[in-house]
Amino acid sequence: MRRTGSLFFSTLGDTGGTILVALLLAAAVLVPVLNALPTDSALHIPNYLVSLFGKYLCFALLALSVDLIWGFAGILSLGHGAFFALGGYAMGMHLMREIGTRGVYGNATLPDFMVFLNWKELPWYWYGFDSFAFAALMAILVPGALAFVFGWFAFRSRVTGVYLSIITQALTFALMLAFFRNDFGFGGNNGLTDFKDLLGFNLQAKNTRASLFAASAIALALGYILCRFLVSSRFGRVLIAVRDAESRTRFLGYRVEHYKLFAFVISAMLAGIAGALYVPQVGIINPREFAPANSIEVVIWVAVGGRGTLWGAALGAVLVNYGKTYFTGALPDMWLYVLGALFIFVTLFLPKGVGGTAKEWLGKLWPTARAAKPPLSPSPQAGVAE
User: Fold this and answer.
1) Which stretch of DSSP H or E encloses residue 133?
2) How do residues 238-286 score in pLDDT, each as one tens digit?
3) Where are the domains of the chain?
4) Model confidence, pTM
């Protein structure tokens, strides 16, 4: 018991992680306070920036979930956008049920798109989503269940490397095609939108948006602490062994597929939470969130931030998405080229990513601290799949 407790409190021992958690907790308090200031104040944060920053934090949690399996278990998933989207759809279904008679057609039970498509009754898989607690639970359990079933067959069959990456990409592509169908019961091409409120609070209200931002910041901080706890434990040591020498780890008697499956399920659940927080802040969820390109972009965030650092993955998500926001306005026809050039630059000149390079420089500045506490694992190269 003492060992477990000391291990938990040592999870923030990493300097970058400590700074990340401290900044997130501070932002959860300061951003809503600054948003509440008068609009003519120099310190006032506009409503649109609060929602934009909240979206960045959701992407950071998604990147964190990918880094858990790619950076520490060598599982390169190109389909994590599916788990993110499923969590988003679970929350979107609750928000659609909350509309009630305020929809265009005024139907208290059926969402507008079902009335438009002449649905006569609510599908069974929509039952229970009038409850926020049920929807929040489904946002975690549905991605986790899909990851468990997928991982169970994939890892028991010892599918690894590029083959596993291709299968995960095929999974999210298949889900995208399914959710595009109007008869699938999720809004088809238009998805779910026109949300009104959450837990009785208007989603367009300043306080609601500030609260969603704070919830996203706290969720990212807790997600980091959980991931750091896992990779700092004996479980994490085995994950690293699996990443570096899976056959040797299996020969030593470890059930490699069990370790990979557990990490994969936890990662999918974190992605689902990120999706559930994302939807009420952007106001829509549609099948385009399943697009394989989105999952590939997440891998770029992790590579830019620093694979195997956790906090670097979160930082990479924020940096890349901020750059995307800036360049889509400044260079709307060129931002994809800028994103590609950024990835090439990082691969060539910062192969360990921003986070990994920062750790290396800090290790050179304070060699005594580095010798006293060896790094958890050598940061793998950003652009190389295990």
Assistant:
1) helix 132-156
2) 999 999 999 999 998 999 999 999 999 999 999 999 999 999 999 999 9
3) 2-372
4) 0.90
